[in-house]
Write a structure and sequence with these properties.
The protein is α+β, with helices and mostly antiparallel strands. It is built from 3 helices and 5 strands; from the N terminus they run E-H-E-E-H-E-E-H.
Length: 137
């Protein structure tokens, strides 16, 4: 199992409809490729973790890097894992608060991030998600 995480900055103000399009596209493309993961958004920044076959994860990541809805894409890590952590869905979206960005109208905060983090998630990934979800600019 191959895993990749990155952060990026929204290039423009994204609407709730834009975020729905991002999620639906990710679910459709990831399902075909056998890739799963999670996407966090705070109104300005994204954190995404992808996992699956290395070739498919890298192919999807290349396409993500070319997406004009965000910029300043920074790879946090690439690693091999013993097993899949986000096995229940090809992609989930969690919205978190931030002092640096406001969520688009129509999106609500994921009230308790612990409800959305798999129990099997390694501690370094859990820490990264917690750090992102409490980022205050």
């Amino acid at each position: 199992m191959y895993r990749l995480a990155y952060v990026s900055t929204s290039h423009t103000h994204l609407s709730a409809e834009d975020m729905q399009d991002v999620l639906e596209s990710a679910i459709r493309n990831n399902k075909k490729a056998g890739v799963s993961g999670t996407l966090l958004f705070n109104g300005m920044n994204f954190l995404q973790i992808l996992e699956g076959p290395e070739e498919e994860v890298e192919r999807i990541y290349t396409r993500i890097c070319e997406d004009s809805r965000h910029n300043h894409v920074v790879t946090i890590f690439r690693e091999s894992g013993a097993r899949r952590c986000f096995e229940k869905s090809p992609m989930t979206l969690n919205t978190v608060s931030s002092k640096v960005g406001a969520l688009p109208d129509g999106l609500t905060l994921s009230s308790d991030i612990d409800l959305f983090i798999p129990a099997s998630l390694p501690s370094h990934l859990r820490g990264m998600i917690y750090s992102f979800s409490t980022m205050r600019g």
